[in-house]
Each structure stands twice: as structure tokens, then as C-alpha cells.
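Researcher: Hi, I'm a grad student and pretty new to this. My advisor asked me to get structures for two proteins we've been looking at. I'm not sure of the right format, so I'll just paste the first sequence and hope you can take it from there.
Model: That works fine. Here's the first sequence with its C-alpha cells right after it:
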Amino acid sequence: MLRASKPAFFLVPEIWKDEDRPAMARTLAAGLTPSPTVLPIDANAPQGDPANLPPAPTDGDAVRWVYYTSGTTSDPKGVQHTDNTLMAGGRGLATALDMQPDDVGSIAFPFAHIAGPDYFFMMLLAGFPAILLESFIPADAVESFAKLGATMAGGSTAHYSMFLAEQRKSPGAPVVPSLRKLAGGGAPKPPEIYHQVLAEMGIPVLHGYGMTECPMIAQGGPHDTPDQLAHTEGKPVVGIEVRTVKADGTVCAAGEEGEVRVRGSIVCKGYTDPALTAAAFDDEGWFKTGDLGVIRPDGHISLTGRLKDVIIRKGENISAKELEDLLFAHPSVKDVAVIGVPDAERGEMVVAVVETADGAEPLTFPAMVDYLDGHGLMRQKIPERLEVTAALPRNETLNKVLKYKLREQYS
């Protein structure tokens, strides 16, 4: 990121979580040309005179923000945003969630994540406060949220699971009595999570869909039906157009699977690498998300996987997400990722990598096959290989599983 952006200054905290961030920063800066000035920031740093700040910007369409995204790929890409694109994302989120001044929110992700300005601008529009945590430790978070009256919490699918785990320690009594909903995005949401949260916590999960390049695409809302909340990522937010496109470039009808493409005021201004920008937009200016999905007749979007997350086994496309949703509901499975690895006979072999649920016996291969067969899965889609791991590799922002690392490990 430093090499690509060539910043004049590199701001870091002082000692944090026993890590000497300034020392790390100086080591990195020393190897760069030009070398940025490292500025350690701590609670005792002198405060500058606001009168010395530069003038406020006047061009809302100027690129002033670069967010780096790696997601499930290994090489970070610099995504260019303007004040207007970021504010449009926050406006879409605020409208979809219908937040009110008496709400108390929480920000579970790093503020420098693309969801930071989304959430912050939503707070400004709706006029509600949010609880900030130094680190997300489930038991501490639940205690703080209960004490301060949080009405909305969440972050990602991993956070939903953590709240459920805390609730299961005290069944029958809500761990955060003031909580009205969980909301978030950043990773696929198995329908089972929605049903578990509703049954055990008594509140809905309002899951959304966005990406660094387009902070808000769709969002579940408090007025959606249980079916819409469980099985979709919500409907397109204000400020975005969405369509799905087949492999031959034709636009899909309602209910047909295709690549999700978006355009509108929330979409970024491309990447810092012009070649990546040229490849990311089609001839009509639609951004190609790389996600597969359907737009249902009710207008809600259901994601079915990613173009590169489709496993091609003996010439047949297999959706990793379909298998993940089924396996996630197995009582022995805490979390799961399904990947394809090279195979001379099949082209790709289907591999399920699972974490074992707390207190459960590890899933065995015969048990997995019987379970999937019993749920009516086509035999040719059942994974040929099962790997049980202590922990799936994840990024630090939203606990998203890094499938490229799994492919490296198991190929």
C-alpha cells in the first residue's frame, strides 16, 4: 500500500497490543523511495490549532480517498473514492436500515475499513450515537452494549455467530435487552444464521451486500419479510442500479443467475491502476462485481457465489456457496469453506474445509456424504475430500475467510 500510494506521511499508533507500531513503520518507510515521514500518534499528542487546517474541499467529485482491498485475493488494489461516493453509500445504508435518533449503534469494524464512512455518515443523517470498542471481545462487547443500551449491533457473519455464542451462555434471558436487530455484511450469510438469531435472541438479522468498490449495493431492512431476510442480501439501496448479466453479455430476467453489475452515485472512480479500471467496467459503464446472483421478482438480491468461486468439476459448474450453506447447518460444523483444487482427472476436486463446533465430535467424511445425500444434493456436487481444521484463515477486518490461502494449503 505504501509503495503504491507514495504518501508523504505515515500515521501509526504508539505501542498497541504489545506491538511497536512506530518501529514497524520506520522499517517499512526506510525501504521506500520516497520515504514517508512516520508520525506516531498517542493519547498525549499535542492538539493542533483548527485555524491552521487547510480550507474545506469544494469539489465533491475529486478523488480524495484510496481504500485498499484484498478480500479473498492476495494482491491489494487501490480503490479511488470521492466525498460524494462515500456519502452516497452512507445515505443508502441510512435509508435501508431506517435508523432513528433514539437508536444506539455500534461500530465493530476498523473505522478505516470502507464500512467506516458508510456507518459514520448514516449516524450524521439519522442523528444517533454509536459505541466504539478498542477490540471486539464478545463477552466485553455484550457487557458494554447492555450497559449503554445498544439497539443495533453486528459487523459480519462471524459477529452474528459470536453474539449467538454469548446468548447461549444465558438461554432464556436476552444478553443485551435493548437490542432490536443485528446488521452487517462483508461475508456470506447462511440462512440458518438468521433463523438461529431470531429463535434464540428474538431479533432479526438485517444483512447487506457491498464491497470496497461500491460500499452499499443492497441491504436488508426492518420492514422486509422473514423469507427476504433469511434468503437474500436485501434490495438495492438508494443511489445504485443493479442488474445481472449472463456469460454471453445479455441481461438476465428475474430469477436467472448471472454476474451482478452495478452503476450509480456509490460506485468508485476506478482503481489506482488504470489497467484494473479498464477491466472492471463494461462498455456501458456498469461495474463488474465478480459476484454471481439472482434478482428475485420481489427485487431482492440473492448471492449464489463468485465467478472465481465456482468449481468446475468434469465440466460442470458447482456453487461453493450452495455446499457451504448446507454444511453450515450440520451440528458438528462451526464454520466451513468449500474450495476447488486442481485435479488431473476432474479438472477440479471439491474440498470442504470445516471448523468443528464447540463440544461436538469432528465431522467425518462418511457422515458428510450421508448428510448431503440426505438433503437431496446431486451426487456429483458432494465434495470428494474433507479437511477438518482448528481455524479457517481469515482477514483481520471482518473475519472473512481467505480462500486463496486454503487453495495454497490444500492444492
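Researcher: Oh nice, that was easy. Here's the second one.
Model: And its structure:
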Amino acid sequence: MPVRTIRQGDQGEDVRDVQHRLLALAAQIDPEELQGGRFGPSTLAAVRAFQQRRGLIVDGRVGPETWGELVEAGYAVGDRVLYLRYPHFRGDDVRALQRRLNALGFDAGREDGIFGDRTERAVREFQRNVGREPDGIVGPETVQAVERLRPDLAGPSRAVVREAEAVARMNLSLDGARVAIDPGHGPSDPGRVGAAGEREADLTLLLGRDLADELRAVGAEPILLRDGDEDPSPTDRARRANEEGAEVCVSIHLNGEDDPAAEGASCFYYGTEDTHSPAGHRLADLIQDELTSRMGLLDGRTHPLGVTLLRETRMPAVQVEPCFLTNPREERLLAQPGFRRDIAVAVTHGLRR
């Protein structure tokens, strides 16, 4: 993995590595940029197009999220032997295997490209059904057995259909519910900084604490995934939410644009070009409705996003971005405790619904 975030204007072997991975995915890059390992306009366009396809934040930079997706995109089914290990195998080969198992009626869970416990159980069940040793190891023979059954990959994913049906049956209450709250960024990555000097990491922590207070007031049990000087990675935050048995997860970030007039609220749920979380989508829609109708914030709509926290959490999860920190007016509002409390109330109402 590159030791730095790679961006336009950079040059070197790490840039060349990124370029060749993009070329293997049918991207088009200017030969002059390739020859010099230079991150120029065509490389920038290829990175942005890749991020768009993968449901990542489209910023044209190759940081840990984009680099990880570039590596995963290079794997096809059969390229390597898959089995349950820690850390889990990740890649498009895993995602394709999950898609095929789900299509054949074996519940591999969300098609997230992570070979976890649920995927291994589906592999073992499949192996038993085709008369093979149920060892959970996906080698050439298991791959061939899956392909021989010609799984029907047309139409919506079976995993998405199952989750949508579960959402329709939900009859829950916030009373006693464990809600994971992720204040985005942290000491090592303060995120965006407004014109008046307000930092995203500081404001998201204040918003997270306000949300925790509101949730306690309605009987829920909030779990702050970052507090004080803590600086967990996105994977650490997702792992804690899973281990704590959270029933829902809300990640709080603030938006930003070069244009200081950009404003409004947006909510995000797990989704890629091939799959998404219906439960996360429903939750994002409800919180977005509260932020816009209750508070009068400009509606930036809900969108799919494939970032680590939304991908690796096992419960319905959303990323809430109530304002643009790069908008001077919204930055001033975010500095006001009463406005932050109103955001917390709106999010809580969305969760209750």
C-alpha cells in the first residue's frame, strides 16, 4: 500500500502502480503520463471514474479506501484459493462468489466482497449439497462446481431481496436499542476546515455527543465509537459496532466543496454499482426527510456509498452529512449549540421512524 495519499501532480513508482491497476480495468491514460509515472489529467479522470463506479467519495485522490478498492478489483473468481481467515479475504472474486452462491439459494449474506463467517457457511452448505467435502475452502473444484450449475445472475441480488423483506417486517422500538454513533475523522485526520477555522473532527464529536444525549432521553443506549482523544481507524469503528451488538449505526460527517455557496444536507447508505443495503437506504431516507422538513435544510438527497464503515458494519448504517463546512453560513450555524441540538433531534426522529 502507498505510504502517502497520491494526488494530481505527484510522480513516481507508486503513481505508476496506480496507473497500471487502472489500465487493467480498461481505463484510458495518456501514454506520456504513463511513461513518466505522472499523475496528470487523464490519470485524475480515470481515478475519479473508478471511484464513481465503486461507490467511493469522488475526490480524485488515491488514499487508503481507493487503494484498497483498486487492489480488490484486480481479483477474479479462481485467481486464488479462498477460505475463512483473519484478516478476511477481500476482493471482487469474493463478491462474485457471494453473488453466485446467493443466486443458487445459499445465503452468503451481503455481497460486500468480504469472506466472513456467513460466506463460509454458505460455501460449506453448497459443498454438502453437491456431494463434496464441506471444508469451506474455495479452490478450483468448488469454483467449477458453482459454475457448472449456471447461477442466474440476472435481476436483483437475492441478498438485497432478503434484506428488503426483512425491512418490511421490522417492528422495533428505540427503547433499549443500542445505537452506534461514529463522529467522523479524529486527531490524525481532522477532515475539512471551514473559513472561520472550525474543524470537521471537532464538530462531528460535538454532534455525536448531542445525538447520544437525545437518544438516552428516548430510552436508547448510545455507543460513541470515538470520544476524547481516541483515534480509531474506520475498520476499528466498524468492528466495535459489530462487537457491541449495535442495532443501527450513524456516522456523522460534514460535506465540503470548492464553491462556498454549496449547502444542504445529504445522507448515505451502503451501495455499489451491483448491490446496496435496503435497510440502510430506508434509514437514510427517513433521516434525510427529518433534516430537510424539520430543519428546512436544502435537500441534497440520499446516495449509495461504499466506504469502510458502511461496508463493514453488519447492521443498518448511514453516513449523515447535515451541512457544508465550506459554506460560511452553515459553518456559523454549526458553531451554535442550539443548531447542533436541532440536528441531533432530527436524526433521533428519523431513527424512531
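Researcher: Is there anything I should tell my advisor about the second?
Model: You could mention this: The chain has a mean pLDDT of 93.
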